[in-house]
Amino acid sequence: MEQLVESLNIDLEQERKDILKKYRRLLRTAKPFLKDNDAKLIKKAFYTSVEAHKDMRRRSGEPYIYHPLAVAQIVVEEIGLGTTGIVAALLHDVVEDTDMGIDDIERLFGKKVAKIIDGLTKISGRFEYGSSQQAENFRKMLLTLSDDVRVILVKLADRLHNMRTLDSMPRDKQLKIASETIFIYAPLAHRLGLYSIKSELEELYLKYTEPQEYRAIARKLRETKNTRDRFISKFMEPIAQDLEAVGLNFILKGRPKSIYSIWNKMRKQNKPFEEIYDLFAIRIVLESPPESDREKAICWQAYSIVTDHYKPNPDRLKDFLSTPRANGYQSLHSTVMSKSGQWVEVQIRTSRMDEIAEKGYAAHWKYKGNDTKVKGNIEQWITQVRETLENGFGDKTAAIEFLDEFRSNLFNEEVFVFTPKGELKVLQAGSTALDFAFDIHSEVGAHCMAAKVGGILVPISYVLNNGDQIEIITSSKQKPNEDWLRIVVTSKARARIKDFLKEENRRYETDGRQLVEKKLKILGMDATAEVMNQLRAFFECKTTTDFFYRIGKGYIPIDDLKRFKRDRDAKDKKAAENGAASNTPPVAGSDGKTLTKYLKQIHGDRADSDMLLIGDDMDKIDYKLAQCCNPIAGDDVFGFVTINEGIKIHRTTCPNAAELMSKHGNRIIKAKWSGKEEAFLAGLYLSGTDRVGLVNDVTRIISNELHINMRGLTIDTKDGVFNGDIKLYVQDTRHLDVLIAKLEQVEGVYNVQRFDTNLSGK
Fold first, then answer.
1. Contact (Cβ atoms closer than 8 angstroms) between residue 645 and residue 538
2. Is position 559 annotated as part of the catalytic site?
3. Per annotation, catalytic residue among 77, 96, 319, 358
4. What is the pTM of this model?
5. In the chain, how many H helices and how many E strands?
6. Mind listing the pLDDT tens digit for each residue in 476-521?
7. Which among 18, 62, 97, 659 is annotated as catalytic?
8. What is the distance between the alpha carbons of residues 565 and 45, in angstroms, rounded to a whole number?
9. For the region Disordered, what residue ranges are annotated (predicted)?
10. pLDDT tens across 335-381, in order?
11. Which of 14, 274, 683, 729 is deepest in the core (most CB within 10 A)?
């Protein structure tokens, strides 16, 4: 440790002063709500954490104690938690990093803190060590949700600080952590109402995965700031005068869209920055006594004033006052037409609603009392999460399956429906009558055969609409089948259906296993775990259980095992002929660590020996370019170890990248281009105004000036506007950038963008 301090030329006395400065800032921020012995408890937690981490440093070289102090600061300043949350944040890594146990924490800081630390320790998953058990870790984390949501709030603060300090991490770790953040933590922050944290997590994800585009949008936002400010000021002037005239106290906020949301919109709508018009929203925050009867009334009064001056779009009015979102979010949203012809979103809410919108679940402490079980829609959602989790996700594959389902529900809106007795039920948007039946009770769902909506008979696949009043019709002869899984969308219904099917499926699984073992014996193969896993991969089944079930059901003919043996024998023969048995590790069953070690062996002392060299290593390791994103030389890429198709090279911006990195981190390897000249297929989308000779000018630049071979060209013209797709072979991204720049100079061409060649059009 002393040698490290000396080598980094660290001033220990200055560090000590900085640590105390950060600690005092934390106390100043927390001071307004500290009671009795709270300050002493925080002080004790601080010194406990300092002692526990005294010999530890972060990758950046900073003392490790900076991290828990920063997490505690986020917890109190940005999320709004109290003393218990601060103490838990200061101690969140102590149990994992020292000999101190949960019992010691409980003795020193009480049961509540110990319970939170225990929850955080169980989900600690240190990503830099490469283990991909995150799906199970997320499940454990969510199990704590209905006991004390502060576990997840502290975890989100921890993740936010990790993202803020990602600069010190190597590129491959940055990508893995950023991908995991966008895949699960940002949606979770959204669901808990932590919109400012969700937005920052998204922006930091973009900063590290698409740095050039991030900087370009940020620069354009800075350049247009003065214009936007003038527009907002002029837009709000008449509204502010009328609000003052009727005696309403208010704050006006002009809020530009986040860089991430602008980037997302540009990508989805295939538009440049200049054509994204709704770059900002206006927010009117009204002063009103919390939870008063006047809250909704003054919001609608303000809405009336806004629409006196600007014409609203009737299809864009969203009333979250009467029916708040599941996370407690309340606001009135309207889109109105400005005098200059631009659509502007106006959000109207009270100061209480605004605080809940910014700090989400945590803000309820201020208005509902220090109760970890907040009433309302969010509690219903938390109850649904716990019910889903408690249905048993025993193995890793099941945990990943749960994660997929849970994640798909995080961003979904709700649908509000009623029972025959008038009881309100809130379900995920897109829910069916069968989802509703399972929400009532598992047995009602299992025996559901139809439903009545407004007295009219509808099938179980009927998709619910807001305000529907539903009556479920059951039959003792009805029972769940596999087709039901395609009808339901809620996790609760899916879990219950799977439970009912499990018992029936177990018989098919047993029969299938016996058939496979018998057939393998005839083929002269041992029924080892490795062979079973290879069979599962060969027949593209998610689990070995699923494979046995498909055999038992007859979906996979047992004689197809002969195909597997022939394929396996052919690979073994090829490996023997190439001498690969001694030189090349088998990719199937390998992981990123195994391959990284192998790469270091074959590359020797080279500085980047842990990287796969695309172009040089083909004769040593089986890899291919992924068709989902078609990388070309110069693209930022990574390698993903598949089960039985070798290594796939993906772009870091691939649509599947976030999921692959977050769910299968142990199968990711670093990769880069070797620099060898090679032709890669790329696609360009062009649009603009049509004219005589346009196609000739475009093809002349491609073929004559840059000597690029085209594989295909499609131009479609309608009413003087053209859209075109060109597929061509380029050497690398630099070559492609030169071509794009040249094409953009052609008269009539307004937009040139790259697209993935496996997709039709843009």
1. no
2. no
3. 96
4. 0.67
5. 32, 20
6. 888 898 889 889 988 788 888 888 887 777 888 888 888 988 988 8
7. 97
8. 61
9. 572-592
10. 888 887 878 889 999 988 888 777 665 555 445 544 444 444 555 55
11. 683
